[in-house]
Structures are given as structure tokens and as C-alpha cells.
Records
---
Amino acid sequence: MPKLYKFDSGLTLFYETNTVNKATSVEISFDCGARCDGELPGLSHFCEHMFFTGTDKLSKQDVTTRYYDFIDVNAFTNNAEIAFVGTIVSGKLGQYLSTVQDMICNSTFKPKAVEEEKKIVIQEIVQDADRHGRHADRLRAYELYKKEYFKYGALGNKESVSKIQSKDVKNYVKKYFVNNNCYVSICSPLSFSKIKKIVKKNFEQLMPTNNLKPLVNDESKLIDGEYVNVYKKDIGKNFVSIAFKFKRSGPDLKYRAIMGTVCNMIDDISDGLTKELRIDNSLIYSMGSDYMINKVNSYMAIYTEISSQNIKPCLDIIINYIKNIIANGFTKEQLKKEQEKDDYYWQTKVYRPVDIKNNLTRLRFYGKFVSDKEIHHLVQHLTLDEINLAVRELFSSAQIQLFVYGNADKKDVYTIKQILKKF
């Protein structure tokens, strides 16, 4: 059973016993990331880089060597957080924590190091330019939420990164890298009481605290209305997504189980949709679906990579499929097949930081610990009537948003009015 402990400083410790092996997995994360970049997209990711450029006692090479000497460690930045993560020998947990603390609190962020690191980060951005699937995902999220940081992700862009100065890094770190904005997730064979002492001695009591208020989690609100967004890019194909946006209120575990089950059943049919398009139109590369649940609303999206001439035929098949679900619902056979699966709801023994973080995220969202086992139990007891009623209510009242990134023109894509007429 996961355990939670909050130090007086505001630092949150999340713990799970490792019964799989003798290693300790740890993730030290700070609630910030690209959403906190402000007028300098890429600042958070740049700060992560700067932690490896030297402290007041160690050179860049020494810092890097010391950190990666722990064997299985890394650091990352995304839209929501900056984190240090690793699986290490349990006896070196204190050493790892103090190493990260030293990098955070004693890095010098010298102007010369900033200029050198800009070249490295800008090279990353250049290399990222050809990853069109990633760009499509970012822009799709931007169109769904209209939040600027989705446009560039954690990397930012060349123009903004080139403007970053030493003072920007120092101010960012001073504001966000504090105890009351930090979550330490640990899975270890060491006892919870021992872990608390190690964290306190080697990290918590050495880190600063300020008056930063907690950032809001899981409150992303989808933009209202129905839109078609076409981004012209000459890449020889298109990334197409049709999203159905549902209004809702508050966290609901059963709703999560229904959404997950419906999404998985739509994934099952995707192979059939893909096969049909291959036969009739010859060019479709992949198809799948995903969903997102927030406290104020949610969406389910069906997406594909496809040639321009196949966008409308593909949308026709998807629309007809959703129409059939609304009219007739899923079958007993489809639900039984989903309930017999282990793919989506299998119960694992937690021994990775990501497993711990998933539990912590659920705690923030639902206000209680929620395990895969609980979700699996709910799915096993869903009835066909419950699922089909939810499907009719959700899809019948959903707002539609269509997104296309690639070489298609607007003439290759239906308007919202045309889509609604087909329903």
C-alpha cells in the first residue's frame, strides 16, 4: 500500500515498498515544466540542462560524471514537471539525494556556460524539426486547450532559447526548486521510517522553501466550440484527429473505467477500419484512439496518419462507426472480450518511479489512492447497459474538433457543418 508523508517544509514524500528486487527507484520532481516558461518557451528544459554545467566546487565534466556514476539515472522536462530519476543501489540513496541537492542549490549558472548550452539546446531543436508526429501531437493539444506552451513543448524554439540569460535561469530555479514545490517518489526495500530519515538528512533540510503556492493540477479546460484546424506542412502525408469533447463535472472513478473501456473497444475496431481503408483506398498508415479526463471535461479522439485523398473516406468510416455505436451500442461479445483482457488493467508490483508517480497523480485527481486493481475490478462489473447509456449520452452531446497536420488543403477536409450533417 502506498504511503504519503509531508514534511513541515512542504516537501511531499511518496513511498512504496519494493518487493521485486533490492534496488531503490527514486524520482525527484518539481511542479513547473514548460507551463511555467512564460515569455521564454524552453526555459524550463534549459534549466534542466544547466544543472549539469558545474557547481561552485565541480566542473561540468565532474558534475556529469558524478551524476551518471549511479548507473541507471536520468533527468527530464515535460509540460508539467522537471525531474531527476533513477534506479540505484539502495545503500547509495542518501548519496544520490545529496548529489541532486548540490546540483540544484550550488550550480553557478555562469553566463559563459549559458551561452555554451544554448548551442546544444538549439541543436536539439533543429534535430526535432523533422519529428512531424511529435509536432502534430503538440499542435493538436494546443488546439484543444489553447495553451501556448503546447506549441513548442519543453524544447521551446530557437528564438526564445537564444534570449535566455543567466539571470532567467537563476530566477526560475529560485522560484520553483523549493521544498514546497517538490515531490520525492521512492520505491525501496528500505523501511518507510528509514527512507524519511534519509530524505530529511540528505535533501529536505538542505533545500530552500519559499511562499510559492501550489500549481493547479488536472484542471485543464478544453476550449468551447467546434472547430476544424488545418496546419499546412509539405511532408507527404497527414496526421488527422477527430476529437469528441464531453462536458463533465468532478472526478469520477467509474467514469474513468467507462471511458477507458470504450476507448479500448474502439481501438479493437481500429484494425478493421484500417483494413477497410487499405482495401478501398490503398493508403492509410495507422489508426488508434485515446482519451483524456479532466475535472471539468474530457475528450475521446480517433487519429490516423493518412494521405490527403483518403481523409474524407476515412472520416466517413469513423463517423458511420460512431453513429452505429450511438444507435446500437456495443455488443456483449465486445464487452466480454474487453473484460477478459490483461493488456490495459493488469496489476503490477510497483518498482519504478513512473508507477509511483501514477499513483500520486491519481491521489491528486481522485483525492484517494487508486490502484490498477480497483480500476480492473470496476471494469469487470460494468454492465452493457451502463456502457451503452454512457456512450449515447457522451457522443450525442459531444462537441467535435477536427485537426489536420500535413500536406492537405481545406478542400480535402470536411467542415464541421458537413460532419454534423452526416450525423
---
Amino acid sequence: MMCNLRSHLSMTDPTPAPRTVEETKAAVEQFRRDYAAVKAQIARAVVGHEDIVDGVLICLFTGGNTLLEGVPGLGKTLLVRSLAQALSLQFNRIQFTPDLMPADITGTTVVRDGTSGGREFVFQKGPVFTQILLADEINRATPKTQSALLEAMQERSVTVGGVTHELPRPFFVMATQNPIEQEGVYPLPEAQLDRFIFKLNVRSSSRDELNEIVNRTTQGVTVKLEKVLDAPSILRHQHLVQRVAIAPHVQDYAVRLVLATHPKSRAFGGGEFATPQVQRFVRVGASPRAAQALVLGAKCRALVAGRPTASIEDIRGIATPALRHRVVLNFEGEAEGLTSDQLIENILSTVPVQAAA
């Protein structure tokens, strides 16, 4: 379980690792140029939300899935579509609705006339067979339909009728969802939430941003984005992110942050690093995937800044989007009106950077 988040990358390394200091520097600079190029293309269509764009791009270059949450009309779908337009990748969109069925996502086996005159069973691929999948308003579908993406998000494959079909590489699910307070939504299962490397909360636009949105969309100007990055380049950058160095004490800090989300339990133990707030208000803490997300995200963040190693500040900078959807409040926490973001802030301010001797 500890390695399966990244296992699909090892089979698709398009280029050997840099062997010299010069090759490594060149690879890092190429990563930074490509990151900036994709971000610049998205900025031509999306106004503001720079932190959200950075979060989405970190997910892209670490090979993880992204969950965007916000009320309708904030540009979540536009952001994902703009990313797809800036990449030379296959792109499909699924609009999730209450009547959507699992087979509408994965595909199904159909019977058709064979070339020899008989009949044969043929698998008809669903829209999940792509490289970027936009799962729009994912929490408007039933839990049964939502679960159709579980295997695809984790294993990069789909099993139908006992036959496993591999998905293209790279493969990302970029999902949007409405806040659970809205009507007509179903909470995502915890197992599915855990498969998103980040959950990004999209805020409302500021006054200046809203004025710029109106200017761009009411004057008859159409923006056409350029494709600036292809699949081999993305896979190469993903492997570069994995090879970024991280000191043992920095990785241990990420591990302790994850363990700090675990309250003491008779059934599962834990609690060694839990803060008093976590012990009182948390029902379920983050899984090992959270530690993987923290380390990979920190490595990517270091590359973006041009640094050769991940730092404590890199871990802290992505802790909230990496952990917020993996911390489940208990009844008392919900009754108190607490949020997972507040608990993560408490953990960051309480867990020491240096481990006790």
C-alpha cells in the first residue's frame, strides 16, 4: 500500500535519469520552463486563483488526481479545460448526474455480429479511457457511480467482465464538486477522497478579478490556448520530481504530521503525536497516501523554486490541501462547527519541526 500511489510510473519512464550535474541542472531548468509555460497558458483563460493553479500543476507533475471544490460559477471547469488545452493529451469530460451509471464511465461489453457470421462479445470503451478526465460535479452522482472511478484513479486500469484494461499514460482525474451543504449532492466515499492527492477549495473572485472576468467575457474576444507540453515530457518531469532529494528529518516531519491526525483508538492504536484538538474532534486520521502526497508535493514545490532538495517549508506549504480531505471529524467536531483546515492549522502550529531525541 505504501508504494502503489506511484507504482504506475515505474513502467513508463521515457528517458534515463540525468547522470551528471550539468544534465540535472538542464532537466531542472526545462521543468521550470515547462511549468511556467503551462501556467502562462492557463492564465490567459483563468483570472486569478494563482494558488489553485499551482496546486493543480503540482498534482499534474506528481501524477496525482485533483479535487476542486467550490460553488458553481467560480471557474473550476474552465481551469481544468484550460489545462487540457495547454497539453497535447487526450481529454474527456463526464458530467456527473444522479442517473449516471458506472458503465457510462468505464464502458461495457456488447454483443455484435462477427466477421465470420456469428456473434462475438466486444468491449466498448467508456470515456474514462483518456489521459485527462474531467469528472464534473462528481458528487451529484450516486456513491455506486462514484466508485466506478476507484480502480482507474489508483491502478490506472479498468476491470470489466473479469478483464483488466490498461488506461493511457499519463492519466489524471481532475474532479470538481459542489460543497456538501448544497442540495442534490452525495458525499464522496472516504476511500475515493483518499485517492485525490490534493483537495483545493476555490474561493470567490475579488473585485478586481471580477472586473477582469467581465472585460474578457463581454467584449467578443475569444482566447485560443496553445499546446505547450506533451505526454513524454510530462512523464519525464514526473520521474524528475521523484528523484528530488529529501533529507530524513524533512521526510520524518511529513510522517509526524500525518500521524498527528490520528486520535488514540482502542481498535487502531495511534495517538502518539495527536494534539488535544485532534484527540477530541477527529474520528479518522489521514492514511499513508497522505505522507506520499506531502513528500511528492514538497519535491515538486522545490523544483518550481529551483531548489535541489525539499524543505520543511515545502511540506508546510502543501499540508492543508494534502490533508484536508483525509481528516474526518467526529460528531463533536461537527457540532462545534470546526473544519479540517482549522485542525490542520492546529497541527502545524503544535507539531515540532525537530523530532524529540
---
Amino acid sequence: MEQKSLIRSAFLDTVPVMTGYLVLGMGFGIIAQTKGYGVLWVFAMSGLIYAGSMQFVAIDLMAGGASLVTMAVTTLMVNIRHLFYGISMVDRYRGAGRKKPYLIWALTDETYSLVCTCTEEEAERRHRYCFLVSLLDQCYWIAGGVIGALLGGVLPFSTKGIDFALTALFVTVFTEQWLTTKDHFAAVAGVLSSGACLWLFGADVFLIPSMIAITVVLTLRKRWKKEETHE
């Protein structure tokens, strides 16, 4: 019963991600199909790479004949934000055992937003919950991609604007987290830091400074809260 309860909880919590990943995954599958990459390519990329926005970029790079070095550097720049995610999850994933490698590998933006707000206090139960959330999210992404690739092969239509689904998903997850939590400091800090860095550094290079600024702000706040507790 406990396992069923945990699965149910993980599924209900991932419903917003499911709706976004199915639509976004379908967009990726359709675009991949129009570029000449079929269902097997989509399944392999979603199962082995599982990098969301980078998969959209990778399709264009491969179709354009980009070198492996170019693809590697681009991937690093697009997904470097995950370094900051990983650092913040060190304590939460400590002692996860055999689940740990997959938990680290499957830490997408949307999965991170769910597992970092997990309220399970018992470590083993928390690790199982995080594993289920991670696995379900990837299954949604793979399913969306495969469905999109199949549809793209039989229903030719313009793909213009499909990649906006990624932006829409981020907005949905942000709204969901805002409505379900009382402490909005992290959300406000993220928006203000990103806005300031966008204004200072421009749209092309603001991502990394934003991540650094957010990390510094949240680290300082955590330190201040500890000091207040000790007082």
C-alpha cells in the first residue's frame, strides 16, 4: 500500500509536467521527422540524451552537418545550468544507493522543480519518490517524441512556432510551483536575477551569470536563516 501511495503521489505531482512533455515531445518528434530523422532516432535521443531544448538544437546541428566538437561545446553551454542544479541536490540525494546515478542523469528543469520541493522526511521514501518522478517524466518525454515522429510521418504541416511549447512549459511549471508553495523567495530571486542579468549582459550570454547570481542569493539566504536559528 505504501508503494502504491508513493506512485500515486508521484504521478499526480507530475501531471503538469506530463501535459507539457507530451506536447513538447511531440513537437520535437515532428521536427525531427521533417529533418529526416525517424522514430528510432527520436526514441534513442529521448532515451539516451534526454536533454529537452538541446535535442531541438541537436537536430538542427546534425541536419546542418556540424562537427562533434561544435555539438559538444554547444551542449555544454546550453546545459551548463545543470551544474548548479546538481550542487543543490547533493544532500538530498545522499545515500540514494543504486538509484543515485539515474537520479543525477535524469535531473531536468521540470524534474528538479518537483524533487527539490519534496516534503518526504524519511530518506528512503524520499529517494523512491524522486526516482519515480524522474522516471515518469522521462517516460512522458519519450512517449511525446515517438507520437510526434509517427504523426510527422503521416500528417505533413508547418512546424513554425512548435518550439514555443518549451517556453509555455516553463511558465506552467513556474505557475504551479507558485500556487502550491507559500515561500516565494526563490521564485522572486530567480526572476529578478534573470531580469537583471538579461539587461546587463544581453540575451545571448545572460544564462550563466543568472545561474551564478541565483546561487549566490539563495546561498546567502540559507546562511542568514541558519544564523537566525542559532540565535
